[in-house]
């Protein structure tokens, strides 16, 4: 059967023909953009050897052109209008690293309409507008690559879409926000309260001046929406993610978890259940001996349970200019290799062919079933009996009930670990506990995750 010759080889013996460099237009030359430019320049020959062609930044859009010039040097065109980069006739692929969801959506869709591939590290953009962006890319036969949008240096999107493609994925769970992991690590290791640990994270550049997206769990939820889509073949739907941040955590909570043999991490969890998909971000207790409990500082860690592979773990930096650049450039190399490849033969944007993507039911908050940790303030040690009796009446499966060790601020706390129970049942039990005369203040509840294979 006749096949068109591959343009990468000549017709006389299959000798390689040099392809012209892949021409990149970049929007944003801040932390990630500058890191990407540096790594491309430093490892130019190595990257070309792997890609089969050079990769060159030819034009950059920046707000501060003078500052941008100090980064890109004299040979790269600089303009202050991002839309001109998105539609530039000399650009093959747009790299969008400016962030945000408003203007960025317009730039990306304009580039796609102009027949350009897109590489982005913008998880908020794809979590909120991914459906429209991926549909436009399919219509115009271009690729949208986004490894840098999730877990920075960890190639988790490639692992889900390619390395684990034979598997039915049962669950994905991860520490995927470096800022909150640094804060929680400092609360445990240095004994800081939340405000002190946040101030330290800001001083070191791990947290923004306005850290709300990180500490409220929104950043992790954006990433989880993308992970779930690739794991389960469902459309990206950020609105379905149940989100709880770490702002109400106290140093006391960290100390109580330690007493019980656990550590608190902000976990993003996507899990298949009989009634639907769990899709949630929340602080949770992990056994202190679990590998994920050893993911400290600004590092990220992700576990994936596949039916054939079993549990696989991925670990790497959760923040950093060149760490993110590593993922962005890996996407550029993939794009550089697409010459001569029909769109239908490429790795799908979400790991599943478009016709195979289907909405899946997402479990409501009350229906999510996990283990739980309760901290119940009481007036005296004798009040433990009343706490245990009420939980028994409410049919809450109690695995441990113990008295908190001496603490300088809080002398009277009952600590509870439950077996698996739906969140609705725990919420009702907490409501009943709060009405007991033996209870001396607000009860606190956190999920417990064992993350067993």
Q: If you had to describe this structure to a student in words, what would you say it looks like?
A:
This protein is α/β, with parallel strands linked by helices. The protein has 3 domains: about 150 residues, Rossmann fold (3-Layer(aba) Sandwich); about 160 residues, Dihydrodipicolinate Reductase, domain 2, CATH 3.30.360; about 80 residues, ACT domain (Alpha-Beta Plaits). The chain has 15 helices and 17 strands. Strands 7, 8, 9, 10, 11, 12, 13, 14, 15, 16 and 17 form an 11-stranded mixed β-sheet that branches. Strands 3-2-1-4-5-6 form a 6-stranded parallel β-sheet, sandwiched between helices. It is elongated, with a radius of gyration of 25 Å. About 45% of the residues are buried. The N terminus is likely disordered.
Number of contiguous helices: 15
The biggest sheet, with number of strands, parallel, antiparallel or mixed sense and barrel status, is: 11 strands, mixed
CATH architecture label of the largest domain: 2-Layer Sandwich
The first-level CATH class of the largest domain is given as Alpha Beta
The N- to C-terminal Cα distance equals 48 Å
For the record, what is the CATH homologous superfamily label of the largest domain? Dihydrodipicolinate Reductase, domain 2
- Share of helix among residues? 25-40%
Instruction: Briefly note the CATH topology name of the largest domain.
Output: Dihydrodipicolinate Reductase, domain 2
Broad shape? elongated
Question: What is the total domain count?
Answer: 3
Low-confidence runs: 1-5
Strand content is: 15-25%
